[in-house]
Specification:
Blueprint (H helix, E strand, L loop, with lengths): L13 E5 L9 H15 L7 E2 H8 L3 H13 L3 E6 L2 E6 L20 E2 L5 E2 L2 E5 L9 H13 L6 E2 L3 H8 L3 H13 L3 E4 L2 E3 L5 E3 L3 E4 L2 H18 L4 H6 L5 H5 L17 H4 L5 H8 L4 H6 L14 H13 L5 H10 L1 H7 L5
Helix pairs in contact: 1-3, 1-4, 2-3, 4-6, 5-6, 14-15
Length: 351
Amino acid sequence: MRGGRSLIAPSSDEFCLPHEVFKLGLEHSPLLVYLYLICSKSRKRGADKMSCAAISKAVGLCEKTVRTHLRTLADAGFIKMEHHGRTFSYSLCPIQSKVQEHRSTTRWISKKQAWNTDEVFDAVFPVPAEVFQLDLECGELLVYIYLHYQKGVRSGQCWPSYATIGKAVGMSRKTVQKHVGSPVNRGLIRVEETVIRRKDGHRYNGSLLYTVKPIQQILKEREEEFLAAACRKSLPRGRLFHVYEVKWSRVRKMMKKGNMERGVVELVDTESLVPQEHLLRKVDKAVDFRKLYEIVESLYSEEDGRPSIDPVVLFKIVLLQHLDGIPSLRWTLCRAQTDIAYRWFLGYTLN
């Protein structure tokens, strides 16, 4: 399933996988945790202390689930762990004896190469470490890593079937089909249908052809989209610091500071300040509140007592409370002091 593949030395932003990793019989979640440990070890971070929180953020699993999968990997002999409070250090164990399926490797055009476990494999292939920065869910990320592992170096294409992917990553065919959709929708991969023509002339549907977009191109496009969005509208400052590590100095020139003109006197009315499509305008148009005067007329005295608040206003205040889910009338009155739409609906001016 690899076309024209040659073995190249991985860069500092890549980690290598032997094809035996996908034949260990692991379920998809423990396998993804194991791949992240391989990535960290390959980038010379394995000697540093690792935490479940860091793994959880990278693979999209909760910390409790990560701890469970780490115990599973340690009990099965894939890793050796040494705990240091909330962190731990680890080392990768040999895996050749745990491979469940042995196949001839004469089809691999490569040379033998040593791996992180000091074992020598017939073929190891680089996968970019940036795959853990794409905000994919657990299953989607594992399927995407497998397609990155399978693709040709020059063409970026591969054509494994759903069954082949599922067998490698520990998922069912239907689950793989579901998880392929998200990378396609995000533009990470492109899928094309293929047709097989047999000797008798009949055509049959073949496996899907996956074209994996280069990871550096994806990150560059996302950075350009972010900068374009920053030009169109202002973004929270915290987001500017954390999304794709865009420096504040690159966006600062695009920002325009406004003047605080709070004391300017203007001639406006509430009618012009409330949008025409506002919900309260629709309610006021649909309901004839003047009929309330006829309903409550017998409840008011014409001679005794002080002048009352307009009964329509009292009814509208209760209606506003229920429309917006405000817990009390006191809070509703407080909001009416600052919400222009409320004041317009109640018939009050800005003063």
